[in-house]
Amino acid sequence: MEAMARYEADGHFAGFIGYCVDISQHEAAHAEPELSTSHITGLLKQTDLLALMIDSSGMIVFTNELISGLLGKSAERLLNTSFFDHFGSDRVRSETLFSSDGRASDFPAEFETPLVGSGQSLILWHSMAQKDYAGRLAYVVLVGEDVTAQRTEEAKLNLTSKVFESSNLAMAITDAKGSILSVNGAFTQLTGYSQEEARGQNPRILQSGRHGPEFYKAMWHSVATRDHWHGDIWDRRKDGTIYPKFLSINAIRDHEGRVTNYSSIFSDITERKAIEEKLSSLAHLDALTELPNRTLLRQRLSDAIATVAGSKDQVAVLYIDLDRFKQVNDTLGHQAGDQVLLEVTRRLKAGIRASDTVARVGGDEFIVLLPRVSEVEIVARVASKIVEALKRPIALEQGEALCTPSIGISLFPDHGQDIDALIHCADQAMYKIKTTTRCGFHFYGQAEEDA
Known about the structure:
This protein is α+β, with helices and mostly antiparallel strands and 451 residues long. It has three domains: 146 residues, 2-Layer Sandwich (Beta-Lactamase), CATH 3.30.450; 107 residues, PAS domain (Beta-Lactamase); 166 residues, Reverse transcriptase/Diguanylate cyclase domain (Alpha-Beta Plaits, 2-Layer Sandwich), CATH 3.30.70.270. It is built from 15 helices and 19 strands. Strands 4-3-7-6-5 form a five-stranded antiparallel β-sheet. Strands 9-8-12-11-10 form a five-stranded antiparallel β-sheet, with helices on both faces. A five-stranded mixed β-sheet has the order 14-15-13-18-19, with helices on both faces. Helix 12 runs antiparallel to helix 13. The chain starts with a strand and ends in an 8-residue tail after the last strand.
């Protein structure tokens, strides 16, 4: 009896392949008895695996139908042809499988060969050497499996593993419940968590606290319905540092459509965020004073109108023009004019609430936005405070500058229902005071004698 264990591709034991030959009819004195092969060939004909027999010189003495189908030749045409004419390579030749003296002791129990003429097909052979009574090789039974697809997948996994470990992108793989199974080196470098510390944890350990439940609900809804989500997110490193990253999450499903894993890839985008913030600053802030410009002012005014709409509160717009500012530029130069604007900015910011906005909308023109006021008297007090602050002389290297303010005021909803109307009314009120008394404030629509 001869047999060998057979294993599945994943290494699990699958059973034995073997056969029994009745040799009772032979006498031990025979030096080279005739080996009966009828039982062997009968067994090999029934197997669902590739199967053949070769003699001690490598010539085929039997093939089953699967071998014939694979090679496209009948069993009769394959008999007495060399096994190595059909299966083999430079690494697998007759001299590598048979010992020089024809003994069977070192014939490999398992080896792989490509199909000659096909660089893709790969056969894994399980061999069982048959010896004669002198211990020499008589026959070799070869049972084979086409492992081309398996080796291809293994190569892909090996490549994937190398990419996983060598990538400069942080990667993590979780199970279907969200527990981390594996992370790569870039993950450890970026987050501060080692493979051992991360394994078994939920990615929630990285949350920064800057995103609310609705953010994560929308994220996982996308993953559940589209198997994917990507976007910018703020996370926290092990040392507590909060940083921005670009995150991509993918659901991995089995052949039945069930989620088996989730993979995530992310990278630090601190530099990109810094650039975006700088560009946003350039787009929304005045270059000299770093005050909100007209664009940002309009956004905040729009928000203020939407907030108080339908309530008893009002929104106030104070349009400020500096008297005699042109004289400073003409007589002392633009550098002195810039110093005046910076000092005016400092005094304006010192005289308003944290919720209010000071914006520079022109060369010497500013707007103060009071987003929520309950009484007109509050607006008047703020305007009076600004007048008092700006009518004091401004010390310069060349002497002093006096640039008093002319302020026009409009109110939502009394003087306008939208941004443009409110700014226009405040501008008109400002010209009213500038062309009369200067250094004061005037409400749009207010009678001149009440100003």
